[in-house]
Specification:
Two copies of one chain form a homodimer. Chain A has ten helices and seven strands. In chain A, β1, α1 and β2 form a beta-alpha-beta unit. In chain A, strands 3-2-1-6-4-7-5 form a seven-stranded parallel beta sheet. Chain A has two domains: 160 residues, Alpha/beta knot (3-Layer(aba) Sandwich); 68 residues, Helicase, Ruva Protein, domain 3.
Chain lengths: 253, 253
């Protein structure tokens, strides 16, 4: 899905095996394969990590280990660090969608890194200094700290969206109804509802207008128009049969 | 952060305590408090769930339990179901940002529900039928299935983004229909359409699903639900009269 540019997820001093596994999974969800670990505090191939990784264990297995953040970023053209301590960085701070737009539009052959810090205290000032841009995920003051795997998920979701992977998989709705189809439907509906006594012949417009509003609002497909017309035809038939049956002298079937 | 509209997260048959805890945390991250559990398969106050909930345990403690999805949605005006099986629902499918825009612009006093299914197989067709709109998170074909807590996180992130993005332009449409009203309408419709022979008794679901999609897509008002129910009652009456008239020996009027 994400072919260009190359994207790396860089984790500094990760403490939780489960988080590593969850991160591998969500990386694969969004088509990102390159995981870089700076001094991890936990085994990245632990059973716990692998259990959470669900069909993305290869990302853990192929993760590269680094002794320092600069080493992990050495071949990266754009490093975006994540932080919640934005007091001093305001002028450099991006929202996830803004960072994603930068990452997704890097020229072919360039590599972008998204850098995430420790579960408990994030990235240090020195580590943030290694990043060209900083990113924060706006969250509620009552609990602003996201789980690191959630943060990775949201950032990669935005990158995938910006890279074009986020197009709605539903193609144009099949055969939207035309104005003529709508009108034929409303004509038939009016006749049927008059015949069964649901419309007041002195003021049929009132209810018909409500029907138009209800059905027009959603935009119908041709198929839906045919479905409703079929239903109306069935009601017509019922009405005719009932009327015929009530005729005196009609032969009972 | 999200004061209006009211938002509920609805989980159907959750299987993982850790996921429940992670979901509570990310709900609090994005200022959403109302958690509804339909037949959970795991204790929502288990130590495992509470450990993952990190300062959001009150969301687990206050979670409401329901026996069925319609019951959980009874007071909701917009229910958005999440799915990856979008073959037959294409015309109804939203991206997270599109769904978030709908949720975030619901008028004051209306409640929106985001509905998530089982960890292993999501929501059933019948459960998706209870939702007016469906949402899918585009993901890589190599591993399209997101962890449910990740899916909740991404959806709420988008809702928070949409809610913070601007003021609500839409004045309240009078009396939007609730989930309970929708279900009573569909119950009556099903009975009537069976009685008049418009539904195939061996497969009534096919057409009923098309009706749900057509009517649920944009949201009905209570008044519109009453209008359609009145129409169905009229058809019922017609059908009974016709049947009675066809009885041999009935006195002709």
């Amino acid at each position: 899905m994400l072919l260009s540019p190359a994207i790396s997820v860089v984790l500094v001093e990760s403490q939780g095996g489960r988080n590593l596994g969850a991160i591998a999974r969500v990386m694969k969800n969004f088509g990102v394969a390159d995981l870089r670990l700076v001094r991890p505090r936990v085994g990245h191939r632990s059973p716990e990590a692998c259990r959470m990784a669900v069909r993305s264990v290869e990302i853990l297995e192929q993760a590269a280990l680094f002794e320092s953040l600069p080493a992990a970023l050495a071949d990266c053209h754009l490093a975006v660090g994540t932080t919640r301590r934005f007091g001093r960085y305001r002028d450099n701070l991006l929202l996830p969608a803004e960072a994603a737009a930068m990452v997704a539009t890097l020229p072919m052959g360039q590599r972008a890194a998204l850098v995430f810090g420790r579960e408990d205290k994030g990235l240090t000032t020195e580590e943030l200094d290694c990043c060209q841009r900083l990113l924060t995920i706006p969250a509620d003051v009552a609990l602003p700290s996201l789980n690191v795997a959630q943060a990775v998920g949201i950032c990669l979701y935005e990158v995938a969206k910006a890279a074009g992977g986020g197009e709605n998989p539903s193609p144009a709705r099949e055969d939207p109804a035309t104005g003529a189809e709508y009108e034929r439907l409303y004509d038939q509906m009016r006749q049927t509802l008059l015949a069964i006594g649901f419309l007041d012949p002195r003021n049929p417009g009132h209810i018909m207008r409500a029907m138009r509003r209800l059905l027009g609002r959603q935009g119908m497909t041709s198929r839906e128009v045919r479905l409703l017309r079929g239903l109306l035809s069935q009601v017509d038939w019922l009405e005719r049969e009932g009327r015929a049956a009530r005729q005196p002298g009609r032969k009972q079937g």
